[in-house]
Amino acid sequence: MQIDGKKVLITGAARRIGALVARRLAEKGAVICLHCHRSVIEGETLVEELPGRGHRLLAADLAVPGKAARLWGECGGADILINNASVYARTPADLPEEEARRYFEVNFWSPLALMRCFASPERTSPGVAVNILDAEVLRPAAQNGIYALSRKALADATAAFALEQAPRNLRFAAVAPGPMLPPAGMENSAMSKVLKSVPSGRRTEPEDLVSAILFIIGCDSLTGAVIPVDGGQHLKNHADL
Ligand SMILES: NC(=O)c1ccc[n+]([C@@H]2O[C@H](COP(=O)([O-])OP(=O)(O)OC[C@H]3O[C@@H](n4cnc5c(N)ncnc54)[C@H](OP(=O)(O)O)[C@@H]3O)[C@@H](O)[C@H]2O)c1
Question: Is CATH 3.40.50.720 the classification given to domain 7-240?
């Protein structure tokens, strides 16, 4: 799919990785529906700065059931959907249920709801949805408990939707990055410990993630793939570390 002139909904994109992806897509002529939750000021600034016209900021708490479908309605649909918003923390598998449900709401149910809206029966135009996941989804054992489980569920949903929707010219794929930035709120922390799990020993360059996303969008035969962009991190079993 050509990007120029296409409408893109990207979630959690007021700052950090999502903001970079939004910028690169706008530079290629996309019209951006930029979603944010709390980062409204950053989002407003970014929308002003993006090249081109017609960009909009939409705020929604995707931890609340029903908000994702409403967000899709406010956006008015899109040619390209990028599910980027997520909540991350090292979470044990026995996290208290209410907290575990919040992870699943933001990391699985809300992106799934957007994928369902994207593939609604009324739709007639082609489209591509890209889920930004985590190298964790390709590793044999999940170390980060509930977080990893919520991302793995979305990885499986990516393949299921790809198979079901391929005849309608709707594509679904995902990128699975390794460590790019320290977690939000811990920006100054060193990444040396986490980089021990990466065979290349280097962080994933955010621009490399953008390249993979642009490749997915541009490659009309590609669907159902989860592409690791992680310096080989997915090849290492947690048990070996
Ligand atoms: N950073 C890394 O090294 C790394 C590694 C592997 C995978 N990833 C994945 O790559 C993507 C981007 O990474 P990132 O580090 O830039 O992500 P991030 O900063 O942790 O989160 C992205 C955005 O998600 C939004 N969000 C969080 N809770 C929300 C909620 N309840 N409702 C709606 N939006 C919510 C936040 O929006 P507001 O700021 O507007 O509240 C936040 O800016 C994520 O999917 C992440 O899991 C990142």
Answer: yes
